[in-house]
């Protein structure tokens, strides 16, 4: 759990753009549809492969329920890793949280006064159309960090730059906190 | 057939419950108070898991009752 001091204002929570999840979503959609599609295909093209006894039907439904149970859990764990991966920008620091798996979490932070340069990069056509990009934060003498594939990278850069220069923007409305 | 399927069911359910409980605990522990999506997704996930768990259990006991009926042996599926 991230603790905020009394004089610390939450300005923005940045998450990865949905495009970064598109590959996972398409894989899970295919895995959800696959059993039904395979059964439909087999019933049309190879009906002799599908035994029509009540026991076979019950067996099929039993394994289908277990398959879906496992799939739902895997989808939830993948969602969790995406959901808990975030960059929290306050008036005093930038906190980078990376949930790499169910039991692997990294939290790092950078004080605003140490930030020297912030770069927003929009790499390519898709990123330009869908409005996402990478934000690179650099500090003096130390390696900074990169916030990759974030939605609204220009806005995040502006807020971090203003804060690092001592120009505090207004706090984010609650609807932006997700 | 039923004991083997029951053992398989118990093993899958135990692993699933362990991972689900860890995942729900991690979401509740690390989500910030303003992050509302977790409040919707976690109950939906629990409900979906319970429903699928109940379905699997129901079909397991259906298999048990059908396996005792004439033509209900596992080999009969392939001897039509």
Mind sketching the topology for me?
The complex is a heterodimer of chains A (178) and B (80).
Chain A: E1 10-14, H1 22-45, H2 54-83, E2 86-90, E3 93-101, E4 104-111, E5 115-121, H3 125-130, E6 132-139, E7 145-151, H4 153-164
Antiparallel strand pairs in A: 1-2, 2-3, 3-4, 5-6, 6-7
Helix pairs in contact in A: 1-2
Chain B: H1 2-30, H2 37-67
Helix pairs in contact in B: 1-2
Order of helices and strands of chain B: HH
Largest interface: A-B, 36 and 42 residues
Number of strands of chain B: 0
Largest sheet of chain A: 4 strands, antiparallel
How would you characterize this protein structure?
The complex is a heterodimer of chains A (about 180) and B (about 80). Chain A is of the alpha+beta class. Chain A is built from 4 helices and 7 strands, in the order βααββββαββα. In chain A, β6 and β7 form a beta hairpin. The longest helix of chain A has 30 residues. The two termini of chain A are about 15 Å apart. The mean pLDDT of chain A is about 85. Chain B is mostly helical. In chain B, about 75% of the residues lie in helices and about 0% in strands. Chain B is built from 2 helices and no strands. The model of chain B has no long low-confidence stretch (mean pLDDT about 85). The interface between A and B is large, with 36 and 42 residues.
Characteristics:
heterodimer; A: 178 residues; alpha+beta; 4-stranded antiparallel sheet; 3-stranded antiparallel sheet; 4 helices; 7 strands; B: mainly alpha; elongated
Short description:
The complex is a heterodimer of chains A (178) and B (80). With 178 residues, chain A is of the alpha+beta class. Chain A has helices at residues 22-45, 54-83, 125-130, 153-164, and strands at residues 10-14, 86-90, 93-101, 104-111, 115-121, 132-139, 145-151.
């Amino acid at each position: 759990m991230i603790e905020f001091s009394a004089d610390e204002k939450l300005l923005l929570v940045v998450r990865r753009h949905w495009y970064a999840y598109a590959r996972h979503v398409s894989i899970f959609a295919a895995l959800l549809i696959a059993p039904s599609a395979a059964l439909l295909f087999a019933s049309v093209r190879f009906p002799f492969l599908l035994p029509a006894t009540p026991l076979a039907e019950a067996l099929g439904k039993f394994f289908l329920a277990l398959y879906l149970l496992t799939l739902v859990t895997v989808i939830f764990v993948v969602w969790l890793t995406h959901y808990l991966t975030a960059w929290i920008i306050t008036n005093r620091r930038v906190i980078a949280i990376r949930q790499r798996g169910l039991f692997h979490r990294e939290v790092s932070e950078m004080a605003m006064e140490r930030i020297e340069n912030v770069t927003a990069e929009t790499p390519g056509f898709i990123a330009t159309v869908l409005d996402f990009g990478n934000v690179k934060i650099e500090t003096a003498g130390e390696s900074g960090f990169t916030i990759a594939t974030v939605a609204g990278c220009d806005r995040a850069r502006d807020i971090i730059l203003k804060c690092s220069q001592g120009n505090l923007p207004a706090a984010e409305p609650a609807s932006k906190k997700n | 057939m039923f004991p083997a399927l029951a053992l398989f069911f118990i093993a899958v359910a135990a692993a699933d419950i362990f991972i689900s409980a860890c995942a729900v605990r991690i979401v509740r522990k690390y989500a910030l108070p303003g992050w509302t999506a977790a409040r919707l997704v976690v109950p939906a996930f629990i409900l979906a898991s319970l429903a699928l768990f109940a379905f699997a259990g129901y079909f397991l006991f259906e298999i048990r009752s059908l396996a005792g009926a004439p033509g209900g042996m596992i080999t009969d599926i392939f001897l039509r």
